[in-house]
Design brief:
Layout (H helix, E strand, L loop, with lengths): L4 E5 L5 H8 L3 E7 L2 H10 L4 E4 L7 H7 L7 E4 L20 H13 L3 E6 L10 H12 L2 E9 L10 E9 L18 H5 L11 E2 L7 H6 L5 E2 L9 H7 L26 E2 L16 E2 L9 H7 L12 H10 L3 H12 L5
Parallel strand pairs: 1-2, 1-4, 2-3, 4-5, 10-11
Antiparallel strand pairs: 5-7, 6-7, 8-9
Helix pairs in contact: 1-11
């Protein structure tokens, strides 16, 4: 079976690419302007090329000749979402929003058989929907049939209630049918995802101290015999004593009145609920805590909740690793999209 060649723009550490690779695609090149993320990408996709570059300055003809040997079947990517996210200013004039149009320029130049563009859910409603509509019109003018959908990662086997917005275009063939959720009624819980990982740090390369106790844990370990990126954060004794007062699934409302305002954000002092998928993994704000241990999750625990398998090892500082994990598309969600895309492509 032919392997379609993929160009990943704004690739980050490679969550979207990992899903496509697992579905049978070949990742040819990843472009991002963040060196740490590309170091992680290259380490985990050794057969793919990487380029550290600002997408608004990329010379696509040069890329085509030097990095891709003229071949691109699929373009994928998630332009930076800060300009669209509810955690940001949501300013349609934000210069970061221009990066979305760099993605359009790439599709216009390479004319791939299909593309997948990912962003935050708010993308659909920014500026009254005008930004989304403008982008879709651009793609349609190139001959692409477009479909778009908001997707909840936990509906597809990811132990995280993460919502993302996807636009998928197919070149003059058919409209893409989004995959139906496989775990809508039986979601993977936080306990099922990370309960085999210990309370304390493990040196990189350590053997698993506990047996896998769920199908999801066995899935995450399928190509791994050791643990990486499981270094805990040392909180102050005061912080740990406050966390200890919050029950599994609880938050600041469970604290004594005198402690409720010690952190002035709504999500402060929130524990994951062991019986449910986790909240959206952030990029290091560190307000969500383990459902049982009195600390924030480790990078490896966060990666598990994002559905990165244990043999996917993150590079760079611990702060950088948290950010890489938080910015990524969950690979299991990506694989569902990619597997469905194969059904629409020529055999």
């Amino acid at each position: 079976m032919k392997k379609f060649k993929v160009l990943d723009l704004f690739s980050g550490c490679g969550g979207l690419s990992l899903g496509f690779q697992d579905a049978g695609f070949e990742i040819s090149l990843a472009i991002d302007n963040w060196a740490d993320a590309l170091q992680t990408f290259h380490s985990n996709h050794p057969n793919a090329k990487t380029l550290c570059e600002d997408l608004t300055k990329v010379d696509f003809p040069l890329i085509k000749n030097q990095y891709l040997n003229g071949e691109v079947d699929i373009v994928i990517g998630g332009p930076p979402c800060q300009g669209f996210s509810i955690s940001g200013k949501r300013d349609p004039r934000d210069p970061r929003n221009k990066l979305s149009f760099s993605f359009i320029d790439a599709v216009k130049f390479f004319k791939p058989k299909a593309f997948v563009m990912e962003n935050v859910p708010n993308f659909a409603s920014m500026d009254g929907g005008k930004i989304k509509d403008k982008i879709i019109l651009e793609f349609e003018s190139m001959g692409y049939l477009i479909n778009f959908q908001k997707m909840l990662a936990s509906d597809y086997g990811v132990p995280q209630n993460r919502r993302r917005f996807f636009i998928v275009g197919l070149l003059e063939r058919s409209k893409y049918d989004f995959p139906k959720g496989s775990t809508i009624n039986e979601k993977v819980t936080t306990f099922e995802a990370i309960s085999d990982l210990p309370e304390n740090s493990l040196n990189d390369g350590s053997q698993y101290p506990l047996e896998a106790s769920s199908d999801y844990q066995r899935l995450m370990r399928r190509n791994s015999n050791e643990v990486h990126n499981h270094m805990i954060t040392d909180h102050t004794e005061k912080t740990k004593s406050i966390i200890a007062l919050v029950p599994d699934g609880g938050n600041y409302k469970d604290l004594p009145q005198s402690l409720k305002n010690t952190r002035r954000v709504n999500i402060a002092w929130t524990r994951y609920d062991s019986r449910k998928p986790s909240f959206t993994i952030d990029t290091g704000h560190r307000h969500h805590f383990h459902y049982s241990f009195n600390r924030v999750p480790t990078v490896r625990e966060s990666a598990r909740l994002q559905s990165f398998p244990d043999d996917f090892i993150f590079k760079g500082s611990k702060t950088s690793q948290y950010k890489q994990v938080g910015n990524a598309v969950p690979p299991i969600l990506s694989k569902a999209i990619a597997t469905q895309l194969l059904k629409h492509l020529p055999k």
